[in-house]
Design goal:
Length: 129
């Protein structure tokens, strides 16, 4: 049976600037057990702490630039581009450039607070290189 999602649920974030997360599909808004899809509205200067999520995350940039820092590289993802970060991979997301970014984040399995900010599991933080 089809389910119309009439509006997103807005979530709070652990970040250095006000970021708006609008969950469209996921455990909170639609009780979806397989996937979460959220629109991220990130201002310039926003950054998220580095973490090791327990889900694959697919990010599609709609406006601006999303900076993705991994253990061995840093990638700027721009309008019309996407990036896949595998579960268990250390990652830090930010939008340091003027204008910030709007992007869609798709998580498999779905995002939950328990699966996003896991300990580093002895993985080094790239800031210490």
């Amino acid at each position: 049976m089809a389910l119309l999602i009439s509006s997103p649920v807005v979530a709070n974030t652990a970040s250095s600037a006000a970021k708006r997360v609008e969950e469209l599909i996921g455990k909170v808004n639609s009780q979806a057990a397989q996937v979460s899809i959220s629109r991220m509205l990130s201002p310039a200067g926003w950054s998220k702490p580095g973490h090791v999520p327990e889900f694959d995350e697919y990010s599609v940039v709609l406006r601006g630039t999303l900076r993705v820092r991994l253990l061995d590289e840093e990638v700027d993802v721009t309008v019309g581009q996407a990036i896949i970060v595998q579960a268990g991979e250390w990652v830090q997301y930010s939008t340091p450039l003027p204008g910030g970014a709007d992007y869609l984040a798709v998580c498999l399995p779905p995002f939950t607070a328990d699966t996003v900010l896991q300990p580093y599991n002895n993985r080094p933080d790239p800031a210490h290189y």
